[in-house]
């Protein structure tokens, strides 16, 4: 066994650095013939890959634009087990620069060999690290209305999933990568135990979509089996005239937190949630859809009967209905998605239905004159852990609050200056149980991303004399 200690990006050229948006290295479980075949190919667009054969749901390393890489703490490393994982999958997303957006898109030939360099050693460290993805699943059901300065979205990792997966003593989160796209303004990773909300694990108050790297926490945070984790994102869509939907492109939005933790477990690697279809249609004032309709049409209420869902999304009076929309989306039901390293739902979680937690004891900083005016460190830490017992409605009903105005802990993260770029969303397809339906926005928009997947042999690793070695883990050959 070998352990990764450090990783960093390797760009093919200065031009590549401006187009590569993020790179993710996944570990693949098993050694199927399909993976063997894919490892000999030159790569393919991610959306064309047959995900059913990709048992590659464990993240080894993640890099985003603006990051210089990541160095693990001295006692932690990521295990590279050649007897369990022979294949690794490299996922690279490319993005056009702001001044290159055009319609129709102008084809541009580009060959790129950028990738990640891993430093590893055969001298194992005390703890094996893992990565847990928490947040909203990238999907059209994640809707962000236009023209709003403060839109809240929440992705839940429910307690039923952590209860099944985490060891009895829990896991320790020691670093986080908090990700939104262009209109994200804040991200918070919340922790709830029973009905008590603990101090936020991390809070980035000023996100920048061009600078979202792993940040080490000042001290590891323990998460026990049964704890709920919530990725809470705040967006500013005031400069957008059209809705923004969840998705992979930078004109769509995301709400994800990648949490580095130890000890590693493989039962739970992706812990997302997705608003249920009833929640989505109720948030739009719709009671019922026409079963099997294509395009999807509304059955009731009578005043909307016959209207397509697309038309409702585009013509909805967001200005006057935003508060009710926000309430329904945050209090309505959702589908927990708890996936293992083998890219399959964890047993027993397939039919879960989730709701917002009933928090009866929530962390809230009680400000005092001594706290506001004093620079005494002891006074600060005496005040920072105060709790008040309030109902969930009183504590969390903060639709109009564009800043919690609290100091969560020394795990508060301040991002770089926020991006000023704001554009309309790309919307692609919607999967509804009633039948296939295609959803297209009114205005055509260019494709933002090229997604490329590559399978890499672990056999390419070499160790020299037990000392840390440098190996080019992946090279992207894209035409």
TrEMBL record:
GO terms for biological process: dopamine catabolic process; norepinephrine biosynthetic process; octopamine biosynthetic process. Signal peptide: none annotated. The chain crosses the membrane at residues 448-465. One of its GO terms (cellular component) is secretory granule membrane. Residues 397-408 have a biased composition (Acidic residues). Keywords: Disulfide bond, Glycoprotein, Membrane, Transmembrane, Transmembrane helix. The keyword Glycoprotein applies. Residues 392-412 are annotated as: Disordered. Pfam families: Cu2_monoox_C, Cu2_monooxygen. Residues 128-273 form the Copper type II ascorbate-dependent monooxygenase C-terminal domain. InterPro entries: Cu2_ascorb_mOase-like_C (IPR014784), Cu2_ascorb_mOase_N (IPR000323), Cu2_ascorb_mOase_N_sf (IPR036939), Cu2_monoox_C (IPR024548), DBH-like (IPR000945), PHM/PNGase_F_dom_sf (IPR008977). Residues 7-95 form the Copper type II ascorbate-dependent monooxygenase N-terminal domain. GO terms for molecular function: copper ion binding; dopamine beta-monooxygenase activity. The keyword DNA-binding does not apply. Belongs to the copper type II ascorbate-dependent monooxygenase family. PANTHER family: DOPAMINE BETA HYDROXYLASE RELATED, MOXD1 HOMOLOG 2. This is Copper type II ascorbate-dependent monooxygenase C-terminal domain-containing protein. It comes from Anopheles dirus.
């Amino acid at each position: 066994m070998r352990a990764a200690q450090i990783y960093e990006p390797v760009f093919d050229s200065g031009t590549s650095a401006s187009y590569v948006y993020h790179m993710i290295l996944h570990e693949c479980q098993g050694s199927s013939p399909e993976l063997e075949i894919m490892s000999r190919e030159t790569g393919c667009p991610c959306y064309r890959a047959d995900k059913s054969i990709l048992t590659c749901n464990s993240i080894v390393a993640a890099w985003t634009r603006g990051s210089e890489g990541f160095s693990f703490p001295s006692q932690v490393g990521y295990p590279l087990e050649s007897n369990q994982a022979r294949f690794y999958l490299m996922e690279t997303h490319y993005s056009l620069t702001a001044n290159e957006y055009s319609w129709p898109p102008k084809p541009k030939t580009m060959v790129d060999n950028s990738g990640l360099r891993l430093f590893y050693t055969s001298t194992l460290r005390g703890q094996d690290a893992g990565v847990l993805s928490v947040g909203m699943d990238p999907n059209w059901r994640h809707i962000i209305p236009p023209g709003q300065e403060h839109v809240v979205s929440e992705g839940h990792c429910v307690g039923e999933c952590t209860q099944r997966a985490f060891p009895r003593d829990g896991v320790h989160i020691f670093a986080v990568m908090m990700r939104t796209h262009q209109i994200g303004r804040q991200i918070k990773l919340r922790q709830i135990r029973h009905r008590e909300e603990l101090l936020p694990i991390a809070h980035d108050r000023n996100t920048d979509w061009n600078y979202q790297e792993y940040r080490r926490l000042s001290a590891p945070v323990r998460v026990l089996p049964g704890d709920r984790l919530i990725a809470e994102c705040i967006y500013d869509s005031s400069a957008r005239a059209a809705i923004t939907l969840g998705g992979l492109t930078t004109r769509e939005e995301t709400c994800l937190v990648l949490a580095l933790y130890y000890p590693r477990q493989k039962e739970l690697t992706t812990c997302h949630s997705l608003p249920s279809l009833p929640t989505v249609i109720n948030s739009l004032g719709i009671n019922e859809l026409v079963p099997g309709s294509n395009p999807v049409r509304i059955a009731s209420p009578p005043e909307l009967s016959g209207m397509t869902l697309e038309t409702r999304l585009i013509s909805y009076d967001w200005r006057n209905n935003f508060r009710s929309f926000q309430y329904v989306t945050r209090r309505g039901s959702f589908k927990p998605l708890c996936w293992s390293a083998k890219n399959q739902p964890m047993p027993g979680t397939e039919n879960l239905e989730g709701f917002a937690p009933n928090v009866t004891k929530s962390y809230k900083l009680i400000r005092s004159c001594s706290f506001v005016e004093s620079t005494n460190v002891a006074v600060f830490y005496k005040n920072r852990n105060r709790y008040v017992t309030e109902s969930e409605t009183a504590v969390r009903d903060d639709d109009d609050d564009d800043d919690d105005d609290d100091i969560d802990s020394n795990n508060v993260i301040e991002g770089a200056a926020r991006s000023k770029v704001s554009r309309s969303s790309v919307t692609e397809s919607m999967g509804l149980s009633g039948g296939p339906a295609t959803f297209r926005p009114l205005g055509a928009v260019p494709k933002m991303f090229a997604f490329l997947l590559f399978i890499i042999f672990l056999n390419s690793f070499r160790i020299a004399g037990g000392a840390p070695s440098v190996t080019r883990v992946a090279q992207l050959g894209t035409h």
